[in-house]
Amino acid sequence: MSKASERRNYTLLQVTKALLWKALRLASLLAAISIVSFVLVSNSPVDPVQAYIGADMLVVSHEQRELIASYWGLDDPPAEQFMRWGSALLHGDLGVSMIYRQPVIEVIGERFVSSLSLMAVSWLLSGVIGFTAGVLAAMNKDRWLDRIIKWYCYALASTPTFWMGLLLLIVFAVWLGWFPVALGVPAGKLAEDVSLFDRLRHMILPALTLSIVGISSIALHTRQKLIDVLDSDYVWFAKARGEQGFTLFFRHGLRNIALPALTLQFTSFGELFGGAVLAEQVFSYPGLGQATVEAGLRGDVPLLLGIVLFTAMFVFAGNAIADILYRTVDPRMKERGTL
Amino acid sequence: MKPVPVLKQRSFSGRRALWSGGISVLYLAIAAAGGLLLGSEALSTHLGSRNLAPSLEHLFGTDWLGRDMFTRTVKGLGLSMAVGFLGAISSSVIAAVVGLLAATMGKAADRFLSWLIDLFLSVPHLVTLILIAFVCGGGLKGIVIGIACTHWPSLARVIRAEVMQLRSAEFVLVSQRLGKSRLWIAMHHMAPHLVPQLLVGMLLLFPHAILHEAAITFIGLGLSPHQPAIGIILSESMRYLSTGMWWLAFFPGLCLLFTVRAFGMFGELMKRLADARGLHD
Known about the structure:
The complex is a heterodimer. By secondary structure, chain A is mostly helical. Chain A is about 80% helix and about 0% strand. Chain A has helices at about 5-40, 50-55, 60-70, 80-90, 105-140, 145-155, 160-175, 195-230, 235-240, 245-265, 270-285, 290-300, 300-330, 330-339. In chain A, helix 5 crosses helix 11 and helix 5 packs across helix 13 (about 300-330). Helices cover about 75% and strands about 0% of the residues of chain B. Chain B has helices at about 5-35, 70-105, 105-120, 125-135, 140-165, 170-175, 180-220, 230-240, 245-275. The longest helix of chain B is centred in the last third of the chain and has 37 residues, at about 180-220. The radius of gyration of chain B is 23 Å and the shape is elongated. In chain B, about 45% of the residues are buried. At the A-B interface, helix 1, helix 6, helix 7, helix 11 and helix 12 of A face helix 3, helix 4, helix 7, helix 8 and helix 9 of B.
């Protein structure tokens, strides 16, 4: 076997090992999350029957309440309820959502698709813009461009996401009238009549909100990394040889800062989802974030538990991708593997 | 490198940091005092002065019940700061306990606690906050517990690393050889390093705590609609935005932004003062 393929096999083995270890960790975390959150919600003072009935509470008689409770098994001891929920969970069944009256897994699936397009657009936009801004700031350190970008990022880091959404709403939907005020699709249109264009038009403002707020951390991080790189011996040497400007950045900077920036973007899935919850709330965008708020407000326990587990997996996926990227892309990590 | 400008620049940026820290403290003090001193008679309904745009009499305008938005905003900021204070303090206490335990109780405890930290980091903060707010049935208690539960992990990691480093520091080892008791070492060698770290960490938790309080109140799981919180003001304003009443959302949000930024700047200043190594930045 040649040395190169031997090394490749070794890396492959390492990655598999790391993946297995990650899977084990995920399993233990998910188990703990489901137990803890189940114990928590079963101690909630919110009456699930009341939450289920909602506004109909005057029409529903006492007997009907008892029927509802026994139908959902709400009077059984918590341990029994947990066993039932847990065994269903292992079969991939998260129970039935009380407010949407449809399996939780379907609700999450449908809602997540519309949230995903929103999050993906803003993830890409904020990543590209933030990275560029960070590079520009670092290349012009202590000059006016750097000051403006830094000031802008610090201000953004303190901006409430929902307030940014409200501002965009005031300017673009109310004053300029370019975009609809709310909802993921035009009101009063049948689902099959909704065109891709309509969907896009309704997605622009929430996506813009998320992107604007998401820029600051990636820009500040990239700026700091590039400043460190620009202060290194090899950059000083390159400068001494007469390299400057874009060539200098492209040859010596980009490779060193691209991976940390990408990693940061992948590990920020949690914040991204948190932002999506708020942006969807402002624009009444029918995504998973809005479903989370609905589940919390109206006491839909199965849906809330399902979302907690699902978002944990979402965050974990981001972290795992970042980790694998590091192991496979960074040549230094490969070298360390062969030692 | 040109050495002279660097030296000049350092003192300049230090002075600027002091200025910005001073201004932010002043702003926060005024906001806090305003929240306590302003009477609530401007909050009662004045049907004669409804929906007024900002003017000299009503700096931030009035809402659909004729309440003065400036008074509402200042009161809301006071409430936000109080909630942020409670949340940040309880979060730092948890962080200190977990960090100390992880660093001193042996390998098994360390592994378990780092797993625990991962557990709390694995669900998005806002989802955890919604879950806890739901479990507590909404209200102040839910927010404070939620913030306390979600914000400690990063600070706990810092404290753990600091204690680990201190334990193997030379001056601690020498002290041990000299026969000083563990308590004496903890009081005279560990605490002087740890307490500033903890205080700075707590200050830097403030902005996050306030932002999360506003967010959870905004989506309707936090403070009740009768309390003058910024989150409540903003979520109520949503119904009136399409009629062009922009001032209902603009000024309260801007003040919240200033508050968060002021806490951030004050925290960064304290961090700089507490850590002599950072003076060269």
